[in-house]
Design goal:
By secondary structure, the protein is of the alpha/beta class. The protein contains nine helices and ten strands. 40% of the residues lie in helices and 19% in strands. 30% of the residues are buried. The chain binds S-adenosylmethionine.
Length: 250
């Protein structure tokens, strides 16, 4: 069995906890989790008594070497975050990298991920996509980040963009996206995925920014932004003309 298993857990609907996830959590010697107050009750409901060890952004780097040593000594760990797929805007990357670099066997139990679910429901091209995690909350840093994306698009990047966002910042984030990427850019806001009030609202960045400025949203939110429109293809006309000239023996 792998010494480290990255286990995805639900993003709101407990029915999404898979049989393989349950087995991995039951079989591990210890479960590394972000917050024992979140993971503890979830395991208790399933009758799983595997001991929990907190692993979060503040202790992960410090704990990783010791945890990898224990893996090398035969201890089998499962890693979960509070919700969804660990490492994805959640702790676990430093530990996974340390284990991989040490040659420890690492596996994963795939499952819920808000970014991918929002992408598939957005009606926007699924690939290529760029997962941006959370945009910086401070306006100056956010503008700088969007500036880097705009520069990448000018250089030819044609990707659907995915961001996590807090509800109280959604309207200003959409306004910043509209100002940076263009008012007419198609987008989608996915809210409360897999939960009772799941909702996906699709429209231009302009329309979505206006809607959420007027209706403060609640709950958990993913923003998906479509790629820039294909540039008009003057090349086709030019090619036609060149072909006609060539056929005419010009
Ligand atoms: N690891 C998680 C995953 O795989 O999706 C994401 C963790 S990140 C700390 C939490 C953010 O993910 C939320 O602020 C929200 O942007 C997004 N999110 C998580 N669950 C969601 C849901 N049910 N509906 C919409 N967005 C969600």
């Amino acid at each position: 069995a792998p010494a480290l298993v990255l286990v995805a857990t639900p993003i709101g609907n407990l029915g999404d906890l898979s049989p393989r996830a349950l087995a991995a959590l039951r079989d591990a010697d210890s479960i590394l989790c972000e917050d024992t107050r979140v993971t503890g009750p979830m395991l208790a409901r399933q009758g799983i008594t595997t001991p929990l060890v907190p692993l979060h952004d503040h202790n992960e780097a410090g704990m990783a070497p010791r945890l990898v040593e224990r893996m090398q000594g035969g201890t089998r760990f499962a890693l979960v975050s509070d919700a969804g797929t660990p490492l994805m805007s959640d702790p676990g990357f430093r530990l996974a990298r340390a284990a991989i670099e040490a040659g420890v066997a690492v596996s994963a139990v795939p499952g819920p991920n808000a970014a991918v679910m929002a992408l598939t429901l957005s009606g926007l091209p699924p690939h290529p996509f760029l997962f941006g995690g959370f945009l910086p909350p401070k306006p100056a840093a956010r503008t700088a980040e969007l500036g880097r994306l705009v520069a990448a698009e000018r250089a030819g990047l044609r990707a659907t963009l995915i961001f996590y966002e807090a509800p109280h910042r959604l309207a200003e984030a959409l306004a910043a996206l509209r100002d940076g990427l263009g008012a007419a850019r198609p987008a989608a806001v996915a809210r409360e995925l897999t939960k009772r009030f799941e909702e996906v609202r699709r429209g231009t960045l302009d329309a979505l920014a206006a809607h959420y400025a007027a209706h403060a949203p609640r709950g958990e939110i993913v923003v998906v932004v479509g790629p820039p429109a294909e540039e008009e293809a003057p090349a086709a006309d030019a090619l036609d003309a060149a072909l006609r000239r060539a056929l005419a023996g010009g």
